[in-house]
UniProtKB/TrEMBL annotation:
It comes from Cryobacterium lactosi. This is Nitroreductase family deazaflavin-dependent oxidoreductase. Gene3D superfamilies: Electron Transport, Fmn-binding Protein, Chain A. InterPro entries: Split_barrel_FMN-bd. It comes from the Bacteria.
């Protein structure tokens, strides 16, 4: 469904349905909708994600790697985004340095079963195994900034 790191028609449909469902906050297990804005067209991109919890922090991970549209949008917006799961949270997504990503990636795979086929390290591997792929998968720490507006 994600040939070449891009969703096909069926994956896009499932993402739209999941994003709506996740935004209601009834799914649980860290399921949220992330809203970002394309900096060129100013169009809103809404997609489903899992917020991973690690050592008291919340993190979002791009299971499709560096080329994800939402990653480009977040970087262009200096981290500004909205997370929805029953309520809207205006957030800043701070990119985590590559050296700090391995344990977060491992925690993410334990919490997001749908991401497992996209990340080439098994969740049962030691944290050290994630060091070789950490640069390929952006990780952002979620920081609340208050407000309910658009990103």
């Amino acid at each position: 469904m994600y040939a070449g790191g891009r969703p096909n028609r069926w994956a896009r449909f499932l993402n739209r349905v999941s994003a709506r469902l996740f935004s209601l906050g009834i799914v649980g297990h860290g399921a949220v909708s992330l809203e970002t804005v394309n900096p060129k067209s100013r169009t809103l991109l809404t997609l489903p994600l899992v917020v991973a919890r690690y050592e008291g922090g919340e993190y979002v991970v791009s299971m499709l790697g560096q080329g994800s549209r939402w990653v480009r949008n977040v970087r262009a917006a200096n981290g500004s985004a909205v997370i929805r799961a029953g309520r809207r949270r205006q957030v800043l997504l701070d990119e985590v340095p590559v050296a700090a990503r391995p344990p977060i990636l491992k925690a993410f795979l334990a919490q997001a079963p749908g991401a497992r086929p996209h990340i080439p390290v098994d969740r049962s591997q030691p944290v050290a195994a994630f060091e070789t792929i950490a640069a390929d998968f952006p990780v952002f720490k979620v920081r609340d900034v208050g407000g309910r507006g658009r990103p």
